[in-house]
Every structure is written in C-alpha cells, then in structure tokens.
Amino acid sequence: MPEVRHSPVAPTRAQWLAPGSAIDAHRHDDHQIVYAARGVLAVTTNAGAWVAPATRAIWIPAGTVHAHQAHGKLELHLVGLPTTENPLDLDRPTVLTVGPLLRELILAYTRRPHDDSPPRERLRAVLLDELRASPQQPLHLPAPRDPRLKALCAAFHANPADNRTLATLGKEVGASDRTLSRLFAADLGMSFPQWRTQLRLHHALLLLADETAVTKVAHLCGWSSASAFVDVFRRTFGHTPGAHRM
C-alpha cells in the first residue's frame, strides 16, 4: 500500500461515509475498534480483507497498515485504545461479534464528549469488559502469496459464482489439484471450499449493502438457490439476509 499515512493517536468518533467512499491506507500507534452501525465495512491489509456488517466489529492492532471501504451508506464508529489496553490480547486484525449491549456501548462511547469525566471512564470500563467476552469470528479473507494462488484467487474475486474444480483451475495456473490443495492449507490456512465460501460471503455482504435483491446475490455469488444462500448466511451471521438489511 503506497503513501501510508501515520496517525499516532487512533481517533474515537462517529462519522458517516457515502457508498463507495474510502479511507486510504494508514496506521496508528494505538489499537482501534472499527464498527459499522449501518452499511458494511471492508478493511484491507497486506494480509487480506476483513468485512463486517452491523453485528460485527473489527479489531485493528496498533501499527497495522489498513484501509477502509464503505459499502452502502456507512455509519462508522471508531474507538481508539492505547497499547496498554488489549482486552482480547490480539496481535492481528480480527472480526468480533457485537451483541446488543456492546453495540449500544460503542455508540454511546463514540458519541459522547471526549473527556476524562468519571461517567465516561465507567462507560469505557464496561465497554472493555464486553469486548473481553466478545467471541471472535472467522470472517477473514486471507491474501495469497504464491503466484499460482494469486492468479486463481483473482479469478474468483472477479467471478465468485465460478464453480470450476481445482483440477480444472490447476491446468490454467500450472499446478495439480493436490498442489493447490496443499497451497491453500499452507498459504491461506484453510481448504479451497472454505476459502471460496468465505469469498462468497464477503461478496454477498457487499452486494446486500448495495441493496441487491437476495435472489440475485445468491446467483451472483454461486449458490445453487436463494434458500441455500439463506441457510449458509444464517448459520454464519445468526440472521437471514433479509434481516441483515434492517
């Protein structure tokens, strides 16, 4: 990522971003929690992409170079934390579950005046307690390093509905299906079917944020039917794509 901007202190604030707008690559000396109360947020680093709807937040450790992309009208909430406060002891970007209480704490903390008053300090303490209890979610779409995987993954990013097998794809990138399977496990930490499902869910969230119809999202992302898509989406996020829009 060229021209990385350095902001020593991670901001704590709420702001709106228009659909398609972005915050260019930057880094902070503090940790940061990034939460989209409305719309869908995509965070990209050199290690891959993380995507979060309103039921998820993204933990960004201090020093991580990252960029933000808004999908749909984005209500963005940022919580900066000093390096001495790492409630989950995380050293890499991670998607966290945001339940009703944690959501309200984030909204209240980012909207209140930024002072050191006792009420604000108590709010901060409860926010950290809720973060410690927040489950981590495997919604990371890792970026490949091997040139063969890069070519293969680029094809799926361009067309998530691609249903070709690894054997067929291997002929195009010059590797056997066995070699590609080993590369997925070693380079991306997951199997090819797991990675492709993550990719499709990633794209589905972005399409839903742009108000694409559920049936069309299922088709564009490679599910055999809308019901199959709804089932996978509900098992992953705990609600249906229709409820996700609300």
TrEMBL record:
Occurrences of domain HTH araC/xylS-type (ranges): 150-246
- A Pfam family annotated for this UniProt entry: HTH_18
Record PROSITE patterns: HTH_ARAC_FAMILY_2
Provide a Gene Ontology MF annotation, just one. Answer: DNA-binding transcription factor activity
Q: Which domain of life is it from?
A: Bacteria
Please name the SMART domains in this protein's record: HTH_ARAC
What protein does this entry describe?
HTH-type transcriptional regulator RipA
| Phylogenetic classification of the source organism | Bacteria, Bacillati, Actinomycetota, Actinomycetes, Micromonosporales
